[in-house]
Amino acid sequence: MRNLKGLTFKQLRALEAVVEHGTIAAAADVLSLSSPAVHSQLKLLEDNSGVPLVERDLSGQFQATQEGRILIDAFEKAWGALSRAAEDIEAVRRGAAGRVVLGVVSTGKYFAPGIVARLKDLHPEIEIRLIVGNRNEIIEGLEAERIDIAVMGRPPRQPDVTAQPLGPHPHVLIAKPDHPLVGAGKVRKADILAQHFLMREEGSGTRILTMRYLDRLGQGKVYDFTEMGSNETIKQSVIAGLGVALLSAHTVIDELCSGRLAIIRAEGLPIMRHWFVLHRSQQRLTGAMQVVWDEIRTHAQDMIRSEEVAEAITD
């Protein structure tokens, strides 16, 4: 940077908006500014940087250069840190002893409210904020420092994290109770590959696991699937007979217990993974964060309903 002192958040917001929306006009509309004002902010930022920060792609839309992406990533982290600071100050003003942002992958949203409720009962002086998202969204939250502690499956390679296992995380193949493969014993590979699968969106850990399972099972054979945006939609679609799905047992425990869904038994199933609690390795845990971290680790089996899940998927 030629002149770091000349850099402003207004300029960085202009850069982010232009890259996100593709044109200066669209960015101006989002920022409630005129197009010349956005252009001026972007030019000032490029002058201060000494390098181009945006370039046009083949469709004529603006995209970030490598230098522009570096600046946007830094801005998002700085903005996240300042937003967190403002929220922490507000929590202190209300008399809270601390504030913790807990991120949970969407597969865990069925037990996440119970975790928050238990933490609030044990430590009412700590303010807990819950963020639920798919695997990619939770990882992005950790990277941007919007999330303090996360509960998810396999820890990510980036960012570098400190992780502790919480308990088993089985994934089961589900179908409606009168499906021909339910109760058929150990089902053949060919019969499984012949099914129509219902899968989560890209970025979902469940989708990644399902595709790896089917690729391993079929050794490259093509399989039919439909993409859906939530576990709830998938469950209702399976109940309606639109297909089968490989889902976390924690997601379907209530439907299995009530008989609305059933498990297809096959070699290699259930797929056993594990739940982890984690935080960024470089993060210094505040007193409130340490309390939440310790409570989740100590009471993990109850919080993630391990015994209930194990009973529901047992033959």
Give a concise summary.
By secondary structure, this protein is an alpha/beta fold. It has helices spanning 9-21, 24-31, 35-49, 66-93, 112-122, 135-143, 189-193, 205-218, 231-239, 249-258, 287-298, 300-303, 306-313; strands at 54-56, 62-64, 98-105, 126-133, 149-152, 161-175, 196-199, 224-227, 245-248, 262-264, 271-280.
Tell me what the structure shows.
It is a single chain. Helices cover 46% and strands 21% of the residues. It is an alpha/beta fold and 315 residues long. The strands form three sheets. Strands 3, 4, 5, 6, 9, 10 and 11 form a seven-stranded mixed sheet that branches. A two-stranded antiparallel ribbon has the order 1-2. A two-stranded parallel sheet has the order 7-8. Strand 7, helix 8 (205-218) and strand 8 (224-227) form a beta-alpha-beta unit. The chain starts with 8 loop residues before the first helix and ends with a helix. The model has no long low-confidence stretch (mean pLDDT 90).
Keywords:
transcription; LysR_HTH_N; globular; alpha/beta; two-stranded antiparallel ribbon; 315 residues; WH-like_DNA-bd_sf; transcription regulation; 46% helix; 13 helices; seven-stranded mixed sheet
Structural class: alpha/beta
- The percent range for strand residues is 15-25%
- Poorly predicted regions: none
Can you count the helices?
13
Order of helices and strands: HHHEEHEHEHEEHEHEHEHEEHHH
Helical residue percent?
A: 40-55%
Mean pLDDT: 90
User: If you compute it from the alpha carbons, what radius of gyration comes out, rounded to the nearest whole angstrom?
Assistant: 24 Å
Tertiary shape: globular
* Euclidean distance between termini CA atoms: 63 Å
Largest sheet: 7 strands, mixed
The count of DSSP E runs of length 2 or more, i.e. the number of strands, is 11
Domain HTH lysR-type: 7-65
Keywords: DNA-binding, Transcription, Transcription regulation
Pfam family, one: LysR_substrate
InterPro entries: LysR_HTH_N, LysR_subst-bd, WH-like_DNA-bd_sf, WH_DNA-bd_sf
